Amino acid sequence: MKLNELAPPRGARKAVKRLGRGPGSGHGKTAGRGANGQKSRSGGNVRPGYEGGQMPLQRRLPKRGFTNIFRKEFPVVNIRDLGRFEKDSVVDKAKLVAAGLLRRNSDGVKLLGYGTIDYPLVLKVDRCSKSARTKVEAAGGQVEIT
Fold first, then answer.
1. Which of 38, 74, 113, 114 has its CB 3.0 to 4.6 Å from that of 131, i.e. a possible disulfide?
2. Domain 76-145: assigned CATH number
3. Are strands 110-112 and 127-128 parallel, antiparallel or unpaired?
């Protein structure tokens, strides 16, 4: 067998439907688009969400609240996630990103107290819960709010 002799098995490839190629093809004249109207024309269709002039759903539903465009995002890091750092190391946002615990585009980091820690670490975070601070300091580490 040669490379130029390779072919897909019979029935694996279906021929494309050739539209508008005369009455003998079975798809001539209107080419499967039905009779008249906007959708039968070339390039003719209604935009997404258009309901024929009826008030569209996105305008019928009530709007509530507002979005604060100045909102700050503080992704959380739990104490249990700090096990991947070595004893007495300084852990800041850059190290958390490198370890895969954070993405780059956040406004800061918040440390939460879920889990335990057995060895001291120096943590530089933007926010910290009381339980997290207590656990880190009980292990001999310290939390610096930046």
1. 113
2. 3.100.10.10
3. parallel
